[in-house]
Design a protein that fits this description.
- The chain has helices spanning about 55-60, 110-115, 135-145, 150-155, 185-205, 225-235, 255, 260-280, 300-310, 325-340, 375-385; strands at about 5-10, 15, 25, 65-70, 95, 100, 120-125, 170, 210, 240-245, 290-295, 315, 345-350, 360-365, 370, 390, 395, 400, 405-410, 410-415, 420-430, 435-440, 450-455, 475, 480-485, 485-490, 495-500.
- It contains 11 helices and 27 strands.
- Helix 10 runs parallel beside helix 11.
């Protein structure tokens, strides 16, 4: 058996209070995320508004505090005026990002009503691709103001008397990407973002604004993009966005599970760029991070390209419908642990996306909603990862993979919830060959015992769930011992572990 891993945690050695918005998600007008996803009038589970209750119940399980909307790439050609008002008067539009037809039957008013049902806030994106500052202001007035003015009055005319009161706004999406409608270079975008942010905060100074960072860490302009954009906009924005997706096209599980090493490098680079501009401007404020797109995405890409190229302009086509396997769930657990370790700077994060499109929740058009493998790590951290992230000491063996050297066998994080008087350890053994003994020193939590130990383990890395069967799900593990504040167990190879301790 491999070298024992040891972890020490102390309730007084802390990273930061965790912002609950770290457990956000994302709904884009893309594929079946909206239509036959969250909205399907006539479905047996649909309520009077056409919202699928089976989906609502699963989203409420995940307890998602904030949801980004309506894109994504979709937002760069989004005409918000077509998504509000009486449905019979709304115009259909071509969505250039995903080469689909948008009916606008479901829009801002419907999304707001749906968010209330799942206990979530809206994170709204404005179109800085094919539109600009004026349209962003019009949308902000429509959503947030209670004035005697054109767009506030238009909202009231549409039957929404009270403002939506949306507090977090994204200044466009992935504007560094050549694929983006209205793509700009860093200085062009930075100036537009700055002027838009300045104007929006004059209209409503209670809002928070997210400026676009790089679309991913492999962009040729990364991280100069971050520095250049913030040079223009630092004084007016609150967060910079990060986007990153992972895949296992080489079918190498060990190397795949090492990819959070790259995530660590990505985070350090973005934080360094933010702090460089802070120092250069002699500013007293930090720009924090909004990791508002993250997930595994690779299973469906070839099929998606065929669908968009050969059968364009469909309504709600099957796009980005990755079916996730066991190793994808383990990688998502590793990503969430990494976020917890950087909770002093990551304040918002959005699992992309929520339903049907690279999502933890899938729906059958004529059948039920069901949980993908990646549902469970997110569910666990959202449920038990609220409170204070603790700075732990971790001693673990390392291994090398095809593309990564010195990969830690064990990754772990701990969260102390003072209100519930409990501490939760999240741990992944990403060694594909060996089970690893694990010891956690929790003596600073006098009188604590194990309340629950949940684990996800599998010999089959490619095991998937379906509407018919949940083959990947957690179970309650009893193989541990605890004496005098020292917890001992064995973490199975390639496993996700949640250990809850309390009085």
């Amino acid at each position: 058996m491999a070298e024992k891993a040891k972890m020490i945690i102390d309730k007084n050695v802390r990273i930061a209070e965790i912002d609950n918005r770290m457990y956000g998600s994302f709904i884009e007008h893309l594929g079946r995320a909206v239509y036959t996803g969250i909205y399907q009038p006539g479905h047996p589970s649909a309520d009077a508004d056409g919202f699928r209750n089976d989906v609502i119940e699963l989203v409420k399980e995940l307890d998602v505090p904030i949801i980004r909307y309506p894109g994504g790439n979709y937002v760069s050609n989004f005409f918000w005026e077509d998504s509000v008002g009486p449905k019979e008067q709304r115009r259909k539009r071509l969505d250039l990002a995903w080469r689909s037809l948008e009916s606008n039957e479901f829009g801002l008013q419907e999304f707001s009503a749906w968010c209330r049902k799942v206990n979530s806030e809206i994170m709204m994106a404005v179109n800085l691709g094919t539109r600009g500052t004026a349209d962003a202001l019009n949308l902000l007035e429509y959503c947030n103001l209670d004035t005697d003015s054109r767009y506030a009055e238009l909202r009231r005319k549409h039957g929404v008397i009270k403002p939506y009161g949306i507090k977090v706004w994204c200044l466009g999406n992935e504007m560094d990407g050549q694929w983006q409608m209205g793509h700009k270079n860093a200085v062009e975008y930075g100036r537009l973002a700055a002027e838009t942010a300045k104007a929006m905060k004059k209209m409503d100074d209670s809002i928070e604004l997210v400026v676009c960072g790089s679309s991913n860490a492999d962009m040729d302009t990364f991280p100069q993009w971050e520095a250049s954009v913030l040079e223009e906009s630092y004084e007016y924005v609150d967060y910079i966005s990060l986007h990153q997706y992972y895949g296992n096209r080489s079918n190498d599980t060990a190397d795949y599970l090492a990819k959070t090493q790259e995530l660590e490098n990505f985070l350090h680079s973005v934080i360094a760029a933010c702090d460089f501009v802070k120092a250069k401007k002699r500013s007293k404020k930090n720009i924090n991070l909004s990791f508002d797109e993250w997930n595994v995405w690779y299973h469906s890409k070839d099929q998606d390209d065929t669908e968009m190229n050969e059968r364009p302009w469909q309504m709600a086509p099957h796009l980005l419908e990755d079916i996730y396997n066991f190793e994808d769930a383990v990688l998502n657990g590793l990503i969430l642990i990494t976020f917890l370790k950087h909770s002093d700077r990551i304040k918002i994060a959005c699992l992309a996306q929520l339903v049907n499109v690279i999502a933890p929740i899938m729906t059958e058009t004529e059948g039920p909603a069901w949980r993908q493998t990646i549902f469970y790590p997110f569910f666990h951290v959202s449920k038990y990862g609220r409170g204070t992230a603790l700075k732990s000491l971790l001693s673990t063996g390392v291994h090398d993979t095809r593309e990564h050297a010195g990969v830690t066998d064990i990754e772990a994080a701990a969260v102390y919830n003072e209100e519930r008087d409990e501490v939760t350890i999240f741990a992944v053994n990403r060694n594909t060959m060996e089970n690893i003994p694990f010891e956690a020193d929790v003596r600073s939590f006098a009188g604590y015992r194990v309340k629950e130990y949940l684990a996800m383990e599998s010999e089959d890395m490619k095991r998937v769930n379906s509407a018919k069967e949940e083959r990947v799900r957690p179970y309650k593990k009893e193989q541990y011992c605890m004496n005098d504040g020292i917890l001992e167990t064995v973490l199975k190879k390639c496993s996700w572990n949640v250990i809850r301790l309390g009085r």
